[in-house]
Amino acid sequence: MSVDESRQSRLRGGPDLVADGRSRSGGQGGQGPFLVVGLGNPGPKYERNRHNVGFMVADLLAERVGGSWKSAARVKAAVAQGRLPLNSGAPGGPGVVLAKPLTFMNLSGGPVSGLARFFKLEVGQVIVVHDELDLPFGTVRLKKGGGEGGHNGLRSMSQSLGSKDYLRVRFGVGRPPGRMDAADYVLRDFSSVERPELPVLLERAADALVDTLVEGLEAAQNRWHVAPA
């Protein structure tokens, strides 16, 4: 049995998981591979919820790299693999392992840490896309490390990885109206006012993530944190 076949058998029921060359870039840009995690809850009931924006961006990225989602049953995640294009559109960008944990949000860390161990990735090679209450709807912000802001998926990841120093793409969903509970708010679908804008904003979040992996965190922040004219 080859090394790659052995890897696949250890993730019984999983995709063709192939680990390529590894640079320990820590957000400086590079060839990867990177573990790109979209946070959300599994199942059609939650599919269009604000809390599932990470899944939505991960789906866009899978389309871009031509990857198909397959179940990695042992780590309880859906996984797709590919290589991002460079910003010029030319091939040769970073290799990525896209992941959607199939546990519920507050248990996301287990699948993430399992995949990181499988691919022998360091925390700085993990980047997560998640909903952010403290940003206006559609605003994208990039960071490395920091607190979890009450986000159960991030808290689970930090605990399982043993570090908060992973990269983050924060997609603003805004604060709940009136006295609505924040948990109820994020588990509702985007509003009829928000939905027409959502596809373009999700594409922007995917673009920001690609810039982070291709050019590095600081360069991507300089581009995406500038207020529009």
Can you name the CATH architecture? 3-Layer(aba) Sandwich
Helix amount, in percent? 25-40%
Question: How many domains is the backbone divided into?
Answer: 1
Query: What is the C-alpha radius of gyration, as a whole number of Å?
Result: 17 Å
Task: Give the mean pLDDT.
Answer: 87
Strand content: 15-25%
Question: What's the count of strands?
Answer: 7
Please characterize this protein's 3D structure.
This protein starts with a helix and ends in a 5-residue tail after the last helix. Strands 2-3-4-1-5-7-6 form a 7-stranded mixed sheet, sandwiched between helices. With 229 residues, it is α/β, with parallel strands linked by helices. The chain has helices at residues 3-10, 53-65, 109-118, 152-161, 182-186, 198-215, 217-224, and strands at residues 34-38, 70-72, 77-83, 95-101, 126-132, 140-144, 167-172. It has a single domain (22-223), classed as Peptidyl-tRNA hydrolase (Rossmann fold, 3-Layer(aba) Sandwich).
Name the descriptors.
Rossmann fold; 7-stranded mixed beta sheet; alpha/beta
Summarize the SSE layout with pairings.
Blueprint (H helix, E strand, L loop, with lengths): L2 H8 L23 E5 L14 H13 L4 E3 L4 E7 L11 E7 L7 H10 L7 E7 L7 E5 L7 H10 L5 E6 L9 H5 L11 H18 L1 H8 L5
Parallel strand pairs: 1-4, 1-5, 5-7
Antiparallel strand pairs: 2-3, 3-4, 6-7
Helix pairs in contact: 2-6, 3-4, 6-7
Quick description:
This protein is of the alpha/beta class and about 230 residues long. It is built from seven helices and seven strands. Mean pLDDT is about 85; it is low at about 1-10 and about 10-25.
